[in-house]
Amino acid sequence: MAEQRERYQAGVMPYAQMGYWDPDYEPLDTDVIALFRITPQDGVDPVEAAAAVAGESSTATWTVVWTDRLTACDRYRAKAYRVEPVPGAPGQYFSYIAYDIDLFEEGSIANLTASIIGNVFGFKPLKALRLEDMRIPVAYLKTFQGPPTGIVVERERLDKFGRPLLGATTKPKLGLSSKNYGRVVYEALKGGLDFVKDDENINSQPFMHWRDRFLYCMEAVNKAAAATGEVKGHYLNVTAATMEDMYERADFAKKLGSCIVMIDLVIGYTAIQSMGKWARRNDMILHLHRAGHGTYTRQKTHGVSFRVIAKWMRMAGVDHIHAGTVVGKLEGDPNVIKGIYSTCRDSFTHKNLEQGVFFDQDWAGLRKVMPVASGGIHAGQMHQLITYLGEDVVLQFGGGTIGHPQGIQAGATANRVALETMIKARNEGRDIWNEGPEILAAAARWCAPLRAALETWKDVTFNYQSTDTADFVPTATVV
Amino acid sequence: MRITQGTFSFLPDLTDEEIRAQIDYAIEQGWAIGVEYTDDPHPRNFYWEMWGNPQFDLHNSAGVMREVLACREKHRNLYVRVIAFDSTRGFETTRLSFIVNRPAEEPGFLLKRHEVEGRHIQYTLESYATQAPAGRRYE
Fold first, then answer.
1. Is any Cβ of chain B less than 8 angstroms from the Cβ of A290?
2. CB A368 within 8 A of CB A344
3. ipTM of the predicted structure?
4. Quick one: which of A188, A302, A393, B33 has the most CB atoms within 10 Å?
């Protein structure tokens, strides 16, 4: 009793002493666990910093309050239970924090994130803070719908198996009239792509209003389907200022017979979940462009790792997510990208520190998200792309299709031939990593568009050091 | 026209040796393998006729190859495909599907445009082949 009286005396007390640090705590199977990278201010004890993060992301405020005693406060306090230095990064600490499941509203990414990343990232005693990974308990996962379609059902609807899907983003991304825009869509689909895509900032601008774009794109999609006998699609971006506008656009896309619509990450978690439910109700594949993520995912010391965003998006319910290419123009260390792809595609993700995956994650039957590789990739990298990224992925060659010297159809054909050739060779047991260039060259002898593509982009690589790398094995981007 | 459904339709038609290699790959993965045929290649005609049940627990490609050849012999002027099924949890679906025979002439598809209110068009795809009754297609 005396102990309790002391604990709840008015005044300020270190977070660690308030119960937010418990080195003996054994996390429950039903706990949400977060792993933060903490960089305390000089002179701040890392354990106290970790306890402060646990406190500020759960029940605490800066001072003792007696009203804690009206609640089962021990249960509701998040508990930092492990703090360890980050290998090779002085001043940084990995801190493991467990949260009781009752702290979170069922099926709500907004609620989960309001706690986990709500207040703590601006907390003064820390120089920097990064959310590296999370373990979501099965009990909580089961309250989420997850991807409206998922990889398996998407493939069955499209009737496309055994190879990555192929896409491209219409370029220039802004300025085309609807009619000219639809031309690009038709050429690329007829030439051999499965999908064409609106870019993240194509919404409804003066040069192209959304209804016009949707009408011309669906003409292109249907014409290409008739010309090839394949199911084709165009990701119609329904991102808009309000939910009402987005529903209106999505309903129109559905009326026109589109099999897929698209949203941007910037619309926010709640809007994404709403669109996920809409897509499930309306048999629609939902593509997510990760617009904006680089502002908080790229730097290693501060922000939220993309692994975590991918996890949240699988729970929120999207079918496609841009997840990195390794070899292209955008950020992507091979190991980190593998970890992100596992997060999207596994039924059970195993802890793998080299890939930045800190926890086993049972996905509880949640459907799988198709990762999308987009940005500065071309046909000549096909063997690398398949080796790094596998089969369940959409490979998007925007410039690599539309910038082809013989035209858009030829660009699309070059990519499709390169893809099918490489999958065939892999299945035949050939070592595509080493023999890839030979295999492509052999196909280029009978396929003129592929020949021209290889010639045009033969020396293009983007060989820069990645900023977001795993901590446990130093690696450089290999191209 | 050339219908480009299936995993390898952009490549020259596979030889028997190449078909065998793909079947070997599927067997290595532990997949079951079926042979299917159709006279209606509409992209949303999901149920081609089954040339018998898929074969399970295979050790080599000989048996499947025999069925491919027999199906092709019987339906020389129809579409024939090989299809591999994966029963692993998380997949439980087709993993590979490729065409191994096509009609000499592929008539393709008619795109019908039904103009409704505003500028809205409803599209329908129709296989030209199915305009003839079953049994008289691709004659």
1. no
2. yes
3. 0.97
4. A188
Name the residue facing A230 among B4, B91, B121 (closest C-beta): B4
Is the bond preceding residue A172 a cis peptide, omega within 30 degrees?
yes
A247 contacts A284 by C-beta, under 8 angstroms? no
Q: Residue-wise pLDDT tens for chain A (479 aa)?
A: 678 888 888 888 899 999 999 999 999 999 999 999 999 999 999 999 999 999 999 998 888 889 988 998 899 999 999 999 999 999 999 999 999 999 999 999 999 999 999 989 988 899 999 999 999 999 999 999 999 999 999 999 999 999 999 999 999 989 999 999 999 999 999 999 999 999 999 999 999 999 999 999 999 999 999 999 999 999 999 999 999 999 999 999 999 999 999 999 999 999 999 999 999 999 999 999 999 999 999 999 999 999 999 999 999 999 999 998 888 766 678 899 999 999 999 999 999 999 999 999 999 999 999 999 988 889 999 999 999 999 999 999 988 899 999 999 999 999 999 999 999 999 999 999 999 999 999 999 999 999 999 999 887 777 667 777 888 765 444 44
State the amino acid at position A199 in one-letter form: D
Do A231 and B21 lie within an 8 Å CB cutoff?
A: no
* pTM exceeds 0.80, yes or no: yes
A286 Cβ contact list (under 8 Å, min separation 6): A147, A148, A149, A260, A261, A262, A263, A275, A276, A279, A317, A318, A319, A320
What's the rounded Cα separation, in Å, for the pair A416 and A418?
A: 5
**Alpha helices for chain B (secondary structure H):** 16-28, 62-74
